[in-house]
Structure formats: C-alpha cells, structure tokens
Amino acid sequence: MANRLNILFINEFFHPDICASAVVATDHLTKIARMRPDWRVSVISGNRAWDDSDRIYPEREDFEGIQILRVPRPALNRRSLLMRAAGFAAFGRGAVRAAAGLGPVDVVIGTTAPPQGGKIAATIARQKGCPYIYKVLDLYPDLAATLGRTREGSFIYRRWWNADERVMQARQRW
C-alpha cells in the first residue's frame, strides 16, 4: 500500500441525504477524513434523494474532505420489490463503471445499502486488485421476509441468501 491510503466507500445514499445509512456513513467518513487528512476518502452513491426521487444531487461534490461521485439511479416505484431490484441493479452497474474511472484504491467498503452492496464492493475490489470490507447494516433477505416483501424459503429468498452468503464468506487474497 502506498503512504496515502485510498478508501472507496459504496453506499446507495450519502450526504446530504437523510436516509439512515447516509447519515451514519456521512458521520463516520467525515470523522475519518478529519482524523486522517493524508488519506483519500471517496464515496460512490446514487444521485436521487431517498425520500424524494425527483430531487437529484450533483454528479460530483467534495464534502468535508470526501470526494463524492453520484451515479444515475432511476426513479422507480419503491413499493414493488421487482422495481427496487431494478433500481439496485442500475446503481450497481453505475457504481462499477464510476469506480473504473478512479485512480488507485487500497480498500473498498460496501454496505447492505443496496442489498447487493457486498457484491458490488467485491466486483470493484477485484478490478482494483485490493481487498474489500462488507459492512452489514441490515440482514437480507431476512428483513425483506419480515416485511412481507418475499417469503422465507422462496426461490428469490434462497437465491438472495446464497449470493449474500458467498460475499460474506469469500476469502480474499491481497
């Protein structure tokens, strides 16, 4: 690793959004950026507000020492699990493309916002030749089943569970 650590954080929402994962990530990363001004902290998030999909944030922004890159995310019906999955997939593709345009990255941190955030982080880390950390904020697909969005044991549930479990159990070489 170089003297300057390059951290890439992937979260579907980030400052100035009010979504819980955005608020927590913003709080943690601004503290890291203040404590370690010699590190480069970058975030890839979506460009639409969590609570108002008509609100679109700028594509690039610097906030308290953090470089924010926002990728297009379609305004889709959040009540439909299928439509949400389409939005998550669009975010994932955009995040991978945006990361390809960044310079060196020493570690990628992905979260469960979106639910496939671990897979997105693993994909980017593989491309960048660095390790990744999967920060689990919510347990999926258990949360979706509890909320009645999918049935425990269903085909979708099992596929989702297996995909997430592979990311959590992956052995990394670096």
Topology:
Layout: E1 6-10, H1 20-35, E2 40-46, E3 60-63, E4 66-71, H2 81-100, E5 107-111, H3 117-128, E6 132-135, H4 142-146, H5 155-169
Parallel strand pairs: 1-2, 1-5, 2-4, 5-6
Antiparallel strand pairs: 3-4
Helix pairs in contact: 2-3
Which descriptors apply to this entry?
single chain; about 170 residues; alpha/beta; Rossmann fold; 6-stranded mixed β-sheet; 5 helices; globular
Description:
- The structure is a single chain.
- The model has no long low-confidence stretch (mean pLDDT 84).
- α2 packs parallel to α3 (117-128).
- The chain is an alpha/beta fold and 174 residues long.
- The chain has a single domain (6-138), classed as 3-Layer(aba) Sandwich (Rossmann fold), CATH 3.40.50.
- 39% of the residues lie in helices and 18% in strands.
- β5 (107-111), α3 and β6 form a beta-alpha-beta unit.
- The chain has helices at residues 20-35, 81-100, 117-128, 142-146, 155-169; strands spanning 6-10, 40-46, 60-63, 66-71, 107-111, 132-135.
- The protein is globular.
- A 6-stranded mixed β-sheet has the order 3-4-2-1-5-6.
- It starts with 5 loop residues before the first strand and ends in a 5-residue tail after the last helix.
Compact description:
By secondary structure, this protein is α/β, with parallel strands linked by helices.
Radius of gyration: 16 Å
Low-confidence runs: none
Strand order of the largest sheet: 3-4-2-1-5-6
Class of secondary structure makeup: alpha/beta
Share of residues in strands: 15-25%
Tally the helices: 5
CATH architecture assignment name: 3-Layer(aba) Sandwich
CATH class: Alpha Beta
CATH topology: Rossmann fold
What is the helical fraction, as a range of percent?
A: 25-40%
Q: Quick one: CATH superfamily? A: Glycogen Phosphorylase B
